[in-house]
Amino acid sequence: MYAAIWRALPGPWPVKLVLALVLLAGIAYLLIFHLYPWIMQEFFPTPDPVLDASAHLTPQGIA
After folding, report:
1. pTM to 2 decimals?
2. If you write DSSP's letter for every residue of 7-56 in order, what string do you get?
3. Residue 19 domain boundaries
4. Which residues are listed as membrane-spanning (predicted)?
5. pLDDT in tens, 25-34
């Protein structure tokens, strides 16, 4: 698979190396900043941190 990608990239090997690194960095960026946060929001929701409005906080604790 990597050989097929390497052959598909244009230019001599230094240009191919730069293009391959740019592609790798772009894929890593998309995964880290877009796909993984979306997966965490959709499939692993965090509980709502808001306290119950009927509870009153006093110096002795919640009344």
Report:
1. 0.66
2. HHS-SSHHHHHHHHHHHHHHHHHHIIIIIHHHHHHHHSPPPP-PPPTT--
3. 1-44
4. 17-36
5. 999 999 999 9
